[in-house]
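Shipment paperwork, digital attachment
Item: protein structure file
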Amino acid sequence: MHFLLIVFTIFAGACESYRILALLPYTGKSHFMVFEPIVDELARRGHHVTVVSFFPSATPRENRRDVSLVGVAPLNVEVMDLKNYDDASFFARKFYNQFVLVTDLIKFNLDICERILKADVFNEFLKAQGDYDVILVEHFNTDCMQGIVHNYGVPSIGLMSCALLPWGPDRVGADMNPAKFPSMLLPLTEDMTFFELVENTFNMYFYLYWHKYLIRDEQTLLEENVGHKLPPLGDISSNASVILVNTHHTLNGVRVLPPSVVEVGGVHLHNKTVKALPEHLEQWVSQSKHGFILLSFGSLIRGSSLPPKRFDAILRIFALLPQRIIWKWETDDIKDLPENVMVLKWLPQYDLLNHPNCVAFITHAGLLSLTEAVAAGVPMVVVPVLGDQPGNAAYAKQAGIAESVPFYDLDENTLNDALLKVLTPEMRARAKAFSKVWSERPLSPMDTAIYHIEYTARHKGFHLLSRRHDYSTELCVLKYGILSVFSTIIFVIVSSCFGTNKVKVKQS
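Attachment content:
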């Protein structure tokens, strides 16, 4: 009887093995770092996984097939020049820098889309060859892969490496009320002033329509390559059974989300272990009596492109600190370093953050770096530059685990003031306490992700999205837009004519 039970269990397990296609054609390494552990864990659990990406696995696995896109397009690693974001003008800070970034990134991905569709290795997916139970596809600022999803006619699951983009809530049926939820592109939390509400409303709806305008060519491009008409790509994207988002409400703010939008923030840390540091590095950090500070601008930004005035200000402050500093710097031309500063082209960031002597982290507020610091319980000085970094920084500061210094404000005074606050025992205690709050969940991020993937494959898709309706969405846009404009006009007129009285409201 026991033997039969074991045999039944083995065959039952085999029946639960699914064929999974993962379409991850973005060239940014940080994005793939979120998804790689998921596809690897799926393979480890016995599913047959085909992964199309620019980052094929270096470790072959029997039931994982990697389709390499290496060489199809250049990788998006250390390509952002900090000098391009050093304009401190009000217009550049509030609009221009982000506008250029969003526009260039969407155009860049359109070019990548065309290259991929014409690549020989992608031909089988273009023709929808291969039998799959579910498709994983990244939801970012391109719908290039949605035509492939539609051609296969199987359920899909969206993967997001960051918080919902301004056009995201509209697609997944989430509440996008700009009076309650800030755009992830802005340095705002839910506690917004009146003029911040106006700015937030403009930002969210401008980029919602600007995104629709810029990606219109993808529809034509895909239809030319698949050889037939397709439904609107945005509608195919909205039809995903589940969206797995790399956020958690404790760190990234509370959102009103449908059941199909599932937060799995920290999933990239699954089974990640702290490794021993190289001997010279271990000696350097261990011998620092006052601990050490880690500085890195991540994998997308080229830290060595720091403008001279920012660089000199940082060095002057570092020279006054009793702590030692480890700094990610990509070139060999750095000179006149203080004795307490070490620069490295590559550094084991996770291992350093978890070293007992790490007392602070100076970071660009990229979500992966932020998550790793939170998991390690290390307080931060966040220096947001672009993309979702301003929003990430605002929430980290609100959580009491970081001080925020926008890149265009970075100088001796602002950095010194931020470090004085971050290097206190109180801030370190808050970071340790917050780490426990963030990590304690009913299920681990990975188990949560795998459950929803297997559930979707098992039931051949399910529909829990609060489907958006274009007519009602247009009315909401019109309503909030008109309300914001007229409210601003009335507020300015009343203020100038009669003045304003400040009323303090006690909050519980």
